[in-house]
């Protein structure tokens, strides 16, 4: 692997980044690779009606989710100044002009010059996850001078697997045998999002998926990704 890799994650909501590629990010950070994480929306307001968005308890929950993102990513090794939070209400990105989201992603690509980009699967049924994928595609079009050498889609437990007719099919595997427990610990920081098993967002199921993806590639634990485009890999 090249020593000059730079990693950009485009995630819809705080916690998607840990679920989708948290173990891989921890491994990259340990290697000293710069990592930037961009969120397109917050992660709470889908549970409320618009007229409730300004209620103190809703504002507090949204702020706590964002604060937890900084703590979780710090645990993985990501610098706070490379985490970009958002105030857009979650599960309403389809109401935002797609061009606005694409331009936001483009701006981070120009500024950060990533070599690898990770984002959501096109077949994820969560509306914001699907929009994030669609907004990303024109932002990474293969123009001269493009810094990206690889673009990957990740899976998010309690979302991606809800599309049984188009199950997530990884083509690339990242060994997280040494960082699986760090991923579980980072996800535990999002305490409002964790549940007892058999809920997908439980430590047991996080490990189970990691173990299954690992078995697909001859590793103890792995994260699986779908390669969208790769250059000279």
Structure description:
It contains 6 helices and 7 strands; from the N terminus they run βαβαβαβαββααβ. It has 233 residues and is α/β, with parallel strands linked by helices. α3 crosses α4 and α5 packs antiparallel against α6. The mean pLDDT is 96.
Number of strands: 7
Q: Tell me the strand order in the biggest sheet.
A: 3-2-1-4-5-7-6
Main beta sheet: 7 strands, mixed
Count of alpha and pi helical runs: 6
Distance between the termini: 9 Å
- What would you report as the Rg, rounded to the nearest angstrom? 17 Å
Q: Mean pLDDT, nearest integer? A: 96
Q: What is the element string, with H for helices and E for strands?
A: EHEHEHEHEEHHE
Low-confidence stretches: none
Shape: globular
């Amino acid at each position: 692997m090249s020593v000059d890799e730079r990693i950009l994650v485009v995630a819809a909501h705080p916690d998607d980044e840990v679920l989708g590629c948290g173990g891989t990010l921890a491994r990259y950070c340990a290697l000293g690779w710069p990592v930037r994480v961009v969120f397109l929306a917050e992660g709470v307001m889908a549970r409320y009606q618009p007229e409730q968005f300004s209620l103190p308890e809703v504002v507090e929950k949204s702020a706590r989710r964002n604060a937890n993102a900084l703590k979780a990513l710090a645990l993985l090794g990501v610098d706070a100044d490379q985490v970009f939070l958002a105030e857009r209400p979650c599960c309403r990105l389809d109401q935002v002009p797609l061009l606005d989201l694409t331009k936001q992603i483009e701006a981070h690509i120009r500024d950060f010059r990533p070599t690898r980009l990770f984002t959501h699967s096109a077949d994820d049924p969560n509306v914001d996850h699907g929009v994030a994928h669609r907004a990303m595609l024109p932002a990474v079009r293969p123009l001269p001078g493009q810094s990206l050498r690889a673009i990957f889609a990740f899976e998010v437990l309690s979302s991606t697997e809800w599309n049984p007719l188009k199950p997530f099919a990884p083509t690339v595997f990242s060994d997280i045998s040494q960082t699986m427990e760090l991923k579980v610990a980072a996800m535990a920081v999002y305490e409002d999002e964790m549940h007892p098993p058999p809920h997908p967002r439980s430590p047991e199921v996080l490990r189970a998926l990691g173990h299954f993806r690992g078995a697909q590639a001859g590793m103890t634990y792995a994260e699986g990704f779908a390669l969208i485009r790769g250059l000279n890999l």
